[in-house]
Amino acid sequence: MTNLKFAIVGCGRIAERHAEHIVKQSQLVAVCDTNEERRNLFAQKFGCKTYSSIDELLQQEKNLDLVSICSPNGLHAEHSIKVLKAGIHVLCEKPMAINVADCQLMIEEAEKANKHLFIVKQNRFNKPIAALKKVIDEGKLGKIINVQLNCFWNRNDQYYESSDWKGKKALDGGTLFTQFSHFVDLLYWMVGDVNQYHAFVKNFMHQHNVEFEDTGVIVLEFKNGAIGSINYTVNSYGKNMEGSITVFGEKGTVKVGGQYLNVLEHQSIENYVMNVPIETKPANDYGYYQGSMSNHDSVYENIIDVLTNNGHVATNGLEGLKTVEIIENIYKLAKSNNS
Ligand SMILES: NC(=O)c1ccc[n+]([C@@H]2O[C@H](COP(=O)([O-])OP(=O)(O)OC[C@H]3O[C@@H](n4cnc5c(N)ncnc54)[C@H](O)[C@@H]3O)[C@@H](O)[C@H]2O)c1
């Protein structure tokens, strides 16, 4: 156990994962949510104080070490900046924000306050993903020439209709932001920055309840010369089907797949075999839909290591910004292709 004191903004589905991991290792002092029922549920379950607004929380709680931002995407920047201005470290859920300008303001505020701005990218901790990143960094695949990202999930009407922000442009931002931003992050993390894009996105099945695309096909050229594609949809019939990344290098090909980037499906590497422990953790299960791998324990281990032991930040604001920049560029191009 540590003496660190945490608070959470937004008591929704993902906030429960945060709270579970916080109380295992530290203290969850307080939460806030505009919804009284949601915040009271947290008080009952985790024995913490509750507030109806972030301003009240920050006025009353003077000894917090870190606040986790688990509110809707479009509020991440406003909420993170308030916490940083109060001189407290931030852990912000993905996506960091839904435009680059907001990410820049968040980074500037963290620098002014001299506080950490951690971003949740828990897929980086999936065992086969961590192993793939290692062989790329060690040069075992040689030069990376081609990469393919497939995100085939199901998000049904109940998913959008039971939320007042999912599917809404202003607070959600788009399918790449809410469903697949941590998949896009892996492309940036493994292959690097993008040079050129071609993008087609359409809303096929959700025109009645989603204000943006439910499907997209993106072609990319990376700055290192590699080319790649992102195929994504939330229309996989009836259930999630696949979340996969395939990397083709001059000396090796690796596919990490399963539904949640959790299974090493293929490897063929010159004079080398990756030894990857079987992924034992389940994906986040929200009842009528499933999310990404539940690796928030590793996110909190990293935070505690940084705050108590001078550890190295796993995902900082700049990396969060790069993912948002790639998605923002894709949407800008897709708009010009569709109009
Ligand atoms: N890392 C992951 O795997 C993962 C998974 C799910 C969601 N997320 C991210 O977490 C965030 C929350 O998603 P969710 O699925 O838990 O949503 P949710 O709708 O279940 O929860 C959001 C909560 O924020 C509250 N809220 C809204 N406005 C607020 C405000 N001004 N102040 C305080 N609280 C406010 C809502 O009442 C709600 O309880 C999103 O950014 C989402 O993209 C990440």
Report on this model:
This protein is an alpha/beta fold. It folds into 2 domains: 5-119, 3-Layer(aba) Sandwich (Rossmann fold); 125-290, Dihydrodipicolinate Reductase, domain 2, CATH 3.30.360. Helices cover 36% and strands 25% of the residues. The protein contains 11 helices and 15 strands. A 7-stranded mixed sheet has the order 8-9-10-7-11-12-13. A hairpin with a 5-residue loop joins strand 12 (252-257) and strand 13. Helix 4 runs parallel beside helix 5 and helix 5 runs antiparallel to helix 11 (317-338). The protein is globular. The termini are far apart. The mean pLDDT is 95. The chain binds nicotinamide-adenine-dinucleotide. Nicotinamide-adenine-dinucleotide binds at residues 9-15, 32-35, 38, 54, 70-73, 75, 93-94, 120, 122, 163, 178, 284, 291-292. Residues 9-15, 32-35, 38, 54, 70-73, 75, 93-94, 120, 122, 163, 178, 284, 291-292 line the site of nicotinamide-adenine-dinucleotide.
Q: What is this structure, in a nutshell?
A:
With 339 residues, the protein is α/β, with parallel strands linked by helices.
Any chance you could write out the topology, listing elements then pairs?
Elements (H helix, E strand, L loop, with lengths): L4 E5 L3 H13 L1 E6 L3 H11 L2 E3 L2 H7 L5 E4 L6 H10 L3 E4 L7 H14 L3 E3 L7 H11 L6 E9 L4 H5 L13 H4 L2 H11 L2 E9 L12 E8 L4 E7 L8 E8 L2 E6 L5 E7 L13 E3 L4 E4 L2 H14 L7 H22 L1
Parallel strand pairs: 1-2, 1-4, 2-3, 4-5, 5-6, 7-10
Antiparallel strand pairs: 7-11, 8-9, 9-10, 11-12, 12-13, 14-15
Helix pairs in contact: 4-5, 5-11, 9-11
The structure holds nicotinamide-adenine-dinucleotide.
